[in-house]
Design brief:
The protein has 14 helices and eight strands. The chain is an alpha/beta fold and 320 residues long. It has one domain: TIM Barrel, CATH 3.20.20. Helix 5 packs across helix 14. It is globular, with a radius of gyration of 19 Å.
């Protein structure tokens, strides 16, 4: 077996792309999207009809121009999610507007709206993960949504403090961003690379995984945002890994034996299980300069891509 096939023996693979053909080629269990991936997707010929459908839906729903634009972008995300669900047997993650990252109530309302749009089209909520930024407000929104049977993927996760709070909230899944952690430390340390086992992004996910498993948390750990295949190899055995098509192909082209690094049965952690208050969370996260910077940057970048997506949809509306 090649390394991609070996990895699938002990880790659930998730496609980190909106490219239908790539998803079909690598047969992952799940797929995840975000504003950046949706922005890339709408440039593909396959999704041109979805762009027009989203516009038609918004017009039929009525409202002022801003309402129609929001409805169009939400509908587009749902339509692309549906296309992906026609291929993957599991779930697709659909993200709440990053501009709502510090508004618990608005995040909850947006999540409910997205789920309702899926359900109106015959897609059960058991096939959807709502993506929320791992701010305090996003995590608390996730806690409420989980009580309503809406499973959540807490994304833009960089600090151990964020991971602790997500476990406390009982969210379905977290997405720690391996590559972006690696980027920050590489720049801060003035190095070009790390030994695979000493990669700061890898070590962060391993720490979270061991804390979760040794303390009996059910929250799924899904490593995300990889920069190279060695990062993936060092997390073999993690619950899930969301991987770009290029790195999936690199693993598929390699036949060397792949060792299972993470194992829930052998997990141990020196971190004490702690229930965090809001003050604990804010102070703990603030104390991590990498996480503070990367969370803020990630929200800004996703928000900027959301605006670009709206600009495209606005142009479609003008043409129509």
């Amino acid at each position: 077996m090649n390394q991609l096939e070996q990895l699938q023996q002990f880790t659930t693979l998730v496609a980190d792309t909106g490219d239908i053909e790539a998803i079909r080629q690598y047969t992952p269990e799940d797929a995840t999207t975000n504003p950046s991936l949706l922005l890339k997707a709408v440039g593909l010929p396959h999704y041109q009809s979805q762009l027009h459908q989203a516009h038609d839906y918004a017009r039929s729903e009525g409202g002022d121009m801003q309402t129609q634009l929001e409805n169009a972008t939400d509908k587009l995300a749902v339509l692309i999610g549906q296309e992906i669900l026609n291929i993957v047997p599991g779930r697709v993650s659909t993200e709440v507007d990053a501009r709502l990252s510090f508004d618990k109530k608005a995040s909850i309302n947006k999540a409910r709206k997205i789920i309702d749009m899926y359900e109106q089209d015959g897609i059960g909520r058991n096939r959807i993960l709502i993506k929320l930024a791992s701010t305090w407000e996003g995590i608390q929104a996730g806690a409420q949504l989980e009580k309503e049977g809406i499973n959540c993927n807490l994304t833009l996760l960089f600090s151990f403090t964020q991971a602790q709070a997500c476990a406390d909230a009982g969210v379905f899944l977290i997405s720690p961003f391996v590559g972006r952690i690696f980027d920050w430390y590489k720049k801060a340390d003035g190095v070009d690379a790390y030994a695979p086992a000493e990669d700061p992004g890898v070590m962060s996910v391993q720490r979270i995984y061991n804390y979760y498993k040794s303390n009996g948390f059910n929250t799924v750990v899904m490593g995300a945002s990889f920069r190279n295949a060695d990062q993936i190899r060092q997390l073999a055995g993690c619950d899930r890994l969301t991987i770009s098509p290029g790195l999936m192909q690199e693993l598929a082209d390699t036949d060397a034996k792949l060792d299972k690094i993470l194992d829930s049965q052998n997990a141990s952690s020196t971190d004490v299980k702690t229930q965090l208050s809001e003050n604990d969370f804010r102070w703990g996260h603030n104390a991590d300069p990498m996480a503070t910077e990367k969370l803020a940057e990630g929200i800004r970048l996703f928000a900027a891509d959301q605006v670009k997506l709206e600009t495209i949809l606005n142009g479609e509306r003008a043409v129509a």
